Amino acid sequence: MRRRPSAAPAALLGLLVFASGAAAQVSEYQLKAVFLLNFTRFVEWPAEAFDGAGGPLRLCVLGHDPFDGALEAAVAGEAAGGHPLEVRRVRDPDDAVGCQLLFLSGRSEPQWLDWLPDAGVGQRLTVGEGDEFLRRGGMFRFRLSGNRVRLEVNRRAVEGSRLRVSAKLMSLAESVEVGPP
């Protein structure tokens, strides 16, 4: 019987190529959508984070949605860890129940940053933009540097969660030292 090669190395390679700026024809939010897709392959959530063993892994966008369909296009037909990927939009933090990955754009409501330390409740990956995102308790932040998308991580927030984040993903992100939220 022939074993099918894992998609993880190809996904990581794709993430590295995009992070290096090699795909100049791709829009910023198409690129960020691919990053979010790849996060699902390099993060393990606890079983209780899902609606059953085959429940969807929900990538949620809180508030302003800058993706213009790019996130749906990136995750169409994809699965991670036996969970089909599903995109949801939520209007406020209270609607984010059931989201395993939560994205906040730089144009999200400033008061939502106060909610970040409790957002994960140990089993939600928070990804965002904006200068205050990591300092206020977010886990990963996209930062533009020239024409490249860079990834930063709040290791304290990641380590305080119940998520298992791959060392490969952590090595792609620049660690940002943050104080308590």
Features:
181 residues, alpha/beta, 8-stranded mixed β-sheet, two-stranded antiparallel ribbon, 23% strand, globular
Overview of this structure, please?
- It is built from six helices and ten strands, in the order ααββαβββαβββαβαβ.
- It is of the alpha/beta class and 181 residues long.
- It has one domain: Rossmann fold (3-Layer(aba) Sandwich), CATH 3.40.50.
- The strands form two sheets. The protein has an eight-stranded mixed beta sheet. A two-stranded antiparallel sheet has the order 1-9.
- β3 (79-80) and β4 (83-90) form a beta hairpin.
- α1 runs antiparallel to α2 (28-42).
- Tell me how many strands there are: 10
Name of the CATH architecture = 3-Layer(aba) Sandwich
Estimate the mean pLDDT confidence. Answer: 82
> What's the N-to-C terminus distance?
52 Å
**Largest sheet, spatial ordering of strands:** 3-4-2-5-6-7-8-10
* Radius of gyration (Å): 15 Å
Q: Give me the oligomer status.
A: single chain
